Amino acid sequence: MRRVVIVTLDGLRRDLISPQTTPNLVAFTREAECFADYSTVFPSCTRVVSASLATGCYPARHGLQGNSVALMEAGHLVLRDAGHPEFLQHKRRVTGQALAMPTLAERLKDVGGVIVFSNVSPGAAYAHDPDGHGYVYHRAGSFGPGRVPVAPADRLDVTLDVDGDRRMTERFIDEVLHRRKPALGVLWLGEPDHIQHEAPLGSPEHLAVLTAADAHAGLVMQAVARLREAGEDTLLLIGSDHGHQSVTGIVDIDAELVAAGLKRDAGSDEVAAVSNGTSALIYVHPDMAALIPRIRAFLDASDWAGAVFGPHDLDRVGQKPEGGLAFAVSMRASEAPNAFGVPGTSLAAKPAMGKPDRLGCGQHGGLGAYEQAPFLMISGRGFTPGAVRSGITRVIDIAPTALAHLGVPAAETDGDALQRPDAASAEGPAR
Hey, which of 158, 239, 263, 396 has its CA 20 to 30 A from 56? Predict the structure, then answer.
């Protein structure tokens, strides 16, 4: 029986894996192949990464441009939080589709199915299966095929913290791995991302939660080992979706545009700067396209902008000028350490829709070295235990890798399967 298990420790950058803090992950490196240059997408935000992992495609093709976006609605650019439980269904009504490419849930619906347990934002959880081909369990609502809510007793009732992750992990192991046995089981932990937004990187509070998240991953490792002992051909992928940088300043890009004469006022919609943490997506209403060269010159001259991509080079960060999207900005970043000696700082774009500013804590979304440094370890057929693979690997490679293990075609993905036919196997031939 062939199966795939994906475990994500949200927000864990690979340089924070250590014997003292994450002993289970360090031990796992002896039986898994590790990917030294694994990278994520842009913006490096969980909702976008979830859609990219589920589809094997960049945002330019799956259509979820950011954690927060602007949608063209009734002739106006309207800011929307993609983390809202109903966002993807709203996006379907406005644009005709939730995601533009098939998810793993759709591809596997007739060959063993998919069950997702997620403790991050609702929008990120539902991005794995917005069309209701499998099961998605989340504290904001749990759904089965057809997006029909599950029975009340079957709901995922957990909190967004270490205790909630622990309860979710234990249920995932018992129910998904041992009893229901889908072709693909996905466990997406809310920690350590949650604490990293609340406390400084490297602080005692952060490190304690990181160790707890590592323990949860260890429980899954043990469970998969038992499945293999029972003869199952299980591919186990453990990784993260992005890293974090420490925030040293907040920039109100909309206010900067107003001051530069490129936007009438903060509430006008001819130009909209949408924060995605340490990055921003800037939308220009089609009627105001003549502003684009001036906005480009303004962004290029702004000392808070680390990298700017416009209509003609958005493809360099996996985006495209669609739905009014004109520019992507990665905020200025540095290698400087924070108060606890953890390197990597960044400016952040001022969040909209009432979200708080948090100086000194972790944030992500841009192209900073550490937010673009998640980790990936894979154990199973086609991967060499204890090996470290160099060369570019990406989150969009996860879907084709899972499909290859299950013997399902991965047509029309942007990523590539990572298996090496001559690699030593951690579990022997398929049964």
Answer: 158
Query: What pLDDT shows up at residue 429?
Result: 30
Contact call for residues 116 and 402 (beta carbons, < 8 A): no
- List the structure tokens of 364: 């992500």
Sequence-separated (6 or more) residues with CB below 8 Å from residue 231: 1, 431
DSSP 132-177: -SSEEE-TT--EEGGGEEPPGGGS----SSHHHHHHHHHHIIIIII
Q: Count of CB atoms within 10 A of residue 225's CB?
A: 16
Q: How far apart are CA 38 and CA 356, in angstroms?
A: 30
pLDDT for the residue numbered 233: 97
Q: Is 426 helix (H, G, I), strand (E, B) or coil?
A: coil
Average pLDDT over residues 229-243: 97
User: What are the helix (H) ranges across 134-267?
Assistant: 162-171, 193-198, 204-229, 253-259
Q: How far apart are CA 48 and CA 36, in angstroms?
A: 22
Supply 15's token pair.
Answer: 């340089």
8-state DSSP, 8: E
Listed residue (250, 239, 260) closest to 332, CA to CA: 250
Q: Which residues of 237-276 are buried (b: 16+ CB within 10 A; e: fewer)?
A: bbbbbbbbbbbbebbbbbebbbeeebbeeeebbbbbbbbb
Task: Report all structural domains of the chain as residue ranges with CATH numbers, in order of start.
Answer: 2-64+99-243+372-406 (3.40.720.10), 246-363 (3.30.1360)
Cα–Cα distance between 94 and 388 in angstroms, integer?
Answer: 45
Q: Does residue 428 have a pLDDT over 70?
A: no
What pLDDT sits at residue 355? 65
- Alpha helix ranges (H) inside 303-419: 398-406
How does pLDDT run across 117-175, given as a tens digit for each residue?
Answer: 999 999 999 999 999 999 999 999 999 999 999 999 999 999 999 999 999 999 999 99
Q: Mean pLDDT across the stretch 359-377?
A: 97
Max CA separation in the chain (angstroms): 67
Read off the pLDDT of residues 292-307 as tens digits, 9 standing for 90 and up: 999 999 999 999 999 9
| Residue 138 CA neighbour count, 13 Å, CB half | 26
C-alpha 156, offset from chain centre: 21
Q: Give mean pLDDT, residues 261-266.
A: 93
Phi and psi torsions of 275, nearest 5°: -65, 135
- Given a contact cutoff of 8 angstroms between Cβ atoms, the answer to whether 171 and 155 are in contact is no
